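Open question from group meeting: does this chain pack into something compact, or does most of it stay loose? Before anyone orders reagents, we agreed to write out a predicted structure and look at it together. Recording both the input and the output here so the notebook holds the full record.
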Amino acid sequence: MKETMSNRQGAISNKVYNAQLSIPMAIGITIQLGLLILAFVTFFSCKEAGSRAIPKWKITDLEEYISKSETPIVVNFWATYCIPCLKEIPYFEETIKKYNAKNEKGVQLLLVSLDFKEEYNKISGFANKRKFSSPVVWLDETNADYFCPKIDAKWSGVMPATLFINNKKGHRSFFEEEMPKEKFESEIKKLLNDQ
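Structure tokens returned:
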């Protein structure tokens, strides 16, 4: 009988010991599983959103892009917090698409985000959610007194702002205002010299 009792005590001891070991193991497994699920969700949510990397440009990069452009370009300065900017971008893209379909010259639209540095990581998701089809870059500058005059001497920094350039025709016009669809289309015609 002593042997049976001690066997039972040993079996109970082993169960208690195993239970004490399994609690930390269970916590470890739960943490690992949680991290795996988080990685999985993050990976697939980025893929589903079609996330694209938003290039960081200095004003000198933008100046070079403008000066070397062989096609007419429209450079729109916007930010995720600028409501008038967000109103005009869809019809900018729609109008340019329409003119590119009927005009062999083609027009390029470049969306230059002026969002604050702290917001940089949100721009890509924001542009994808709004289904922007045009290239988007972030202007990595903080001193508007430095970069605004490089775009246009009269630019106060107000957004939205839009620059129309056709280097081959010597056309350059700049507007620091929300542009109604009709005015934008009129400027595209001037840019393409269709008037």
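Observations to bring back to the group:
The chain has two domains: 1-49, 56-192.
Residues 1-49 form one domain.
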